[in-house]
Amino acid sequence: MVTLVIFSIIFYFLGSFPTSYLIGKKKYKIDILEIGSNHSGLSNIYKISTKKTILIVLFIDVVIKGFLPTIFVVNFFYDMAPVCIFLIIGHNWSLFLKFKGGKGLTVSIGLLSGINFLLFICLLSIFLFFWVIFRFKDSSLPWMFSFVLTSLIVTFDSLFYHFFSHSIFMVSNYLIIPVTILLLFRRILGNGEYNIYNWKIIFNRLLFDRDKI
Predict the structure, then answer these.
(1) Cα 188 from Cα 164, distance rounded (Å)
(2) Distances (CA, A) of 72 to 68, 114, 165, 189
(3) What pLDDT digit, counting tens, does each position of 26-71 carry?
(4) Residue 213 maps to a domain
(5) Domain count, the chain
(6) Please, which of 15, 85, 126, 140 could form a disulfide with 146 given CB 3.0 to 4.6 Å?
(7) H or E element: which one contains 94?
């Protein structure tokens, strides 16, 4: 129990490291919480960044904040795999940004690759299909579709085929479901007034990542 609490706290602090926010402050002298879509994720600094900067942010958020902690826990403390969720929680509601943050996508991708690489390949394949065929303006939308479909595939597979479960512990595979729910929840919250909701706003936030089309 004590180990579980310790890992949860450490992972929350690790996830809270505001990569894009710090780069925006240090390199571009801007507060990305005050521009664009008002969050500290990669997508809000993407348009003003160089390719090198984007790669740095991706490496830190996907590999250091998502992949490495997850693969460590899954391989050495597999019964505590659910604590990896705190990496996303920290990224979305950073202690260093007064509980503001990103949308959790980059960390979630790294987390999933650490859980089970076959699941990551499945996720990536679905993303490429949606992105190439439909060319969404909101680049995160095909990723959201990919997470939802991958969650459905894992659930179906666990009931009938057990293809993914042979590669690693089943409890880890199921993490894709709460990760997906957390991604959808953060997207629904948006960056506006949390006390103003209707079906149109929720729909627009899910599909277009904004309150109005």
Answers:
(1) 30
(2) 6, 8, 18, 31
(3) 888 888 888 777 778 787 777 788 888 899 999 999 999 999 999 9
(4) no
(5) 1
(6) 126
(7) none
